[in-house]
Design brief:
103 residues, alpha+beta, 60s Ribosomal Protein L30, Chain: A, four-stranded mixed sheet, 54% helix, 14% strand, globular
Length: 103
């Protein structure tokens, strides 16, 4: 699976100010209807994964596991991130296209 394209899209979205990261901010974006897609680190805790998967199902937001906390963190210019949300529709669509190619 080539994650580089997805991670570079996340990086571009972050530079454009169109991402939020961390559990609290991601949860807020989903509940406010601003999140286009949620990405969770594969090494996030079981509780974190379950919480976001259930929340995203309820709010009808696509949710994927991608990379580990360090990789997600680097994509948004932070150290470690277990979750992040992309807020922009165009970036969301581009990331979804890449993820669909890889499934």
């Amino acid at each position: 699976m080539n994650k580089n394209k997805v991670l570079s899209l996340i990086g571009l979205a972050t530079k454009a100010g169109k991402t939020v990261s961390g559990e609290f901010s991601t949860e807020k974006a989903v509940k406010n209807g601003k999140a286009g897609i949620v990405l969770i680190a594969e090494d996030a805790s079981g509780n974190t994964k379950k919480k976001f998967e259930n929340m995203c199902r309820f709010y009808e937001v696509p949710c994927y596991c991608l990379g580990d906390r360090e990789i997600l963190g680097k994509a948004v210019g932070k150290e470690f991130r277990a979750s992040l949300a992309v807020l922009d529709e165009n970036f969301t669509n581009a990331i979804m296209e890449e993820l669909k190619k890889q499934l």
